[in-house]
Specification:
With about 375 residues, the protein is an alpha/beta fold. Helices cover about 40% and strands about 15% of the residues. It contains 13 helices and 14 strands. It has a seven-stranded mixed sheet, sandwiched between helices. A three-stranded antiparallel sheet has the order 11-14-13, with no helix packed on it. The protein has a two-stranded parallel sheet with strand order 1-12. A hairpin with a 4-residue loop joins strand 6 and strand 7. The structure holds pyridoxal-5'-phosphate.
Length: about 375
């Protein structure tokens, strides 16, 4: 397809999703698809199979379910469906997305406890072990992998070891990391891992996906506390009707995602994408430190997807003015979300390259109005 007719984006989205996508991903949406037609269902099946392969070599033990809505809908579909009536969830929050899992459980009236380590610290492994030793009623443990609130990458391998030592089911919100760092779910014995179309796979927003251990999901029939977010039922229809969704599916978004997965392969898979994101991140942080900015997190905790920087201390600084100046120069950044410090965030995932990060640092240098 000739893509020269497609308009250029007025700016790069340096936000953790939706993010900047390629023209070819956007162009894939320029036709209509029937939601129950075999051509379309075939596309859905391909996407499901490829997603499982990205997460594990033991494809037969796992299955993949696509779910309408933003990422939170998919997280809610897991929590709503995975826990039996007698189940109890332990969450290890250290930011807004971990808090959201707690909020989902509370809304659904699911028995839930949480070990909050604070926004600036990873989950406390000793406390996790102590909690699991003490509270035998806990059945499931949930954690966020890349906590987008700060950019912290939580140590899911170490957490998995403890969770599995006590025989609990393990739920991982890998929303903003899946596809952008190698994750081996069978090595960690993860039961559910969740991400969405508009993060590291570089599609457009509209659905999420859950990769679940088949043996675990098969036990969840009739457990869901929601009709439209029933993960078991969605799987049942998708599996037995070979790619059919229960209700209207986001056909254009799925088509774009299918194209995004081809482009991930063309880039060289997750290994190469990880390298690009890491180089983006390095280029960004090195440049920002040269300009005098400080990262919120120490490097040891920092992931390579999104970075929080302390706001400049000057009284003349305002995020809004800074944001507007950068937007005029072609970059959209993200406000801070931590409660205890004034910060802003810059994402480096999406169709974004080290050269863009270098241009960004120059644009930031030229936008430090509080220095004049
Ligand atoms: C983006 C994201 C989500 C989902 O957010 P939505 O706005 O519902 O798409 C959940 N968890 C994490 C860690 C995220 O980065």
């Amino acid at each position: 397809m000739d893509m020269t007719c497609l308009p250029d984006n007025p700016y790069l989205l340096l936000t953790p999703g939706p993010l900047s996508t390629t023209k070819s991903v956007k162009a894939a949406m320029l036709r209509d698809w029937c939601t129950w037609d075999d051509d379309y269902k075939q596309l859905v099946q391909e996407v499901r199979t490829k997603l499982i392969r990205l997460a594990t070599a033991k494809s037969d033990d796992y299955t993949c379910v696509l779910m309408q809505g933003s990422g939170t809908f998919s997280v809610e579909s897991i929590i709503s469906t995975a826990l039996p009536e007698s189940g109890k969830l332990l969450v290890l929050p250290n930011g807004a997305y971990g808090d959201r899992i707690v909020q989902i459980a509370k809304t659904l009236k699911i028995d839930c406890v949480f070990n909050d380590s604070g926004e600036l610290e990873p989950p406390d492994l000793e406390k996790l072990e102590a909690t699991l030793k003490e509270d035998k009623v806990i059945t499931h443990v949930a954690v966020v992998h890349s906590e987008t609130t700060t950019g912290m990458l939580n140590p899911i391998e170490k957490i998995a070891q403890i969770v599995k030592k006590y025989g609990k089911l393990f739920i991982v919100d890998a929303m903003s990391s899946f596809g952008g760092v190698p994750i081996n779910i069978e090595a960690m014995d993860v039961d559910y891992i969740v991400s969405s179309a508009n993060k590291c796979i570089q599609g457009v927003p509209g659905f999420g996906f859950i990769i679940a251990k088949k043996a675990t999901l098969l036990q969840c029939k009739g457990q869901a506390r929601s009709l439209s977010l029933d993960l078991y039922d969605q799987w049942n229809t998708m599996e037995n009707d070979k790619g059919k969704w229960r209700y209207t599916s986001p056909t254009h978004v799925v088509r774009a995602f299918h194209q995004a997965m081809i482009e991930l392969e063309e880039e060289g898979g997750i290994t190469k994408r990880t390298e690009r994101y890491r180089t983006n991140h390095r280029t960004l942080v090195d440049g920002m430190r040269r300009l005098g900015f400080q990262t919120l997190l120490p490097d040891a905790y920092q992931g390579h997807f999104i970075t929080s920087f302390y706001s400049p201390e000057s009284e003349r600084y305002s995020f809004k003015t800074f944001y507007d100046l950068l937007k005029q120069k072609g970059f959209v950044i993200y406000p801070g979300k931590v409660s205890k410090a004034s910060a802003f965030r810059i994402g480096n995932i999406g169709d974004v390259y080290p050269a863009d990060m270098e241009r960004l640092v120059k644009a930031i240098e030229a936008s430090m109005f509080w220095k004049d």
